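Student: I would love a firmer grasp of how sequence relates to backbone shape in proteins. I am handing you a single protein, as its sequence and its fold in token form. I am told such tokens are a discrete way to write the fold. I hope you can help me see how the letters and the tokens relate. Take your time, and here it is.
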Amino acid sequence: MAGSSLFALIDDIATLLDDVSLMTKVAAKKTAGVLGDDLALNAQQVTGVNADRELPVVWAVAKGSLVNKAILVPAALAISALEAWLHGRGYNIPLVTPLMMIGGAFLCFEGVEKLAHKLLHDKDEDGKHHAELVQAVQDEKVDMVAFEKDKIGGAIRTDFILSAEIIVISLGTLAGRTFMEQLLTLVAIALVMTIGVYGLVAGIVKLDDAGLALNRDGGGDAWARFKRSLGTGILRSTPYLMKFLSIAGTAAMFLVGGGILVHGVAPLHHFIEPYAQGAAGGLVSMLFNAAVGIVAGIVVLLVVKLVSRLRKPRTLPAG
């Protein structure tokens, strides 16, 4: 009897872990929109940092990201538990869905804000900012410890927002699951996303160093020439990789954020449902989600700008 109970327990644990693995994959797909932009954004955070300090800075931000998720995961579980408790007492008050809608709207807002900045900003301003960063690195009077701490603090604050989006979107895929399944899935997502994102960030920021190292091989044999060609290729392709990550991340923001809004607003969901069938249904659904995401992002951006303008103190005319 004890043996059969033990096997039953092992089977339950195996089933639970299998479910968690499956749900983790589903949640990871749902949060893909955050990751492309997250990679580019965090790789840019080490701009202006000495090459030998890049990895320590990325590691410091990664530790901060884990702290963020250690705060967000219990908070998400508490919200889910509160929703279940209210539902059990006859109060059908959704808490997770509104959070998902807010997260989706915020994703769309971020995407539109990035596009607006790209299309409307002054390019000379970016050049000036980059020159200031380079000057800060070269100036011995600049306190690089304080400079790094400022970079790390800003990156961790940005990560908190992105991590909140990831956790909320993941939580939305776990409706009706047990507390243990929710806990294990959210912890798995938190660890996978942190290790995956910052591992890739570390690789991206060191691509140029790898290219330079390969390029320095002065040998005359075929292997040395191949390494120099590979190094040159890496150095030339890295800026394009960063641009691709940024573009792909922005597009994914509209797709994922718009998809969340479409699924959360019944009229939109019912409108697109007949057109989302057949071979081209997936493409039609994606385009519709992206269109909804862009419109929602524009609306949120206009509201934010309006509120910001209304809150700005008015100066009375002199005299």
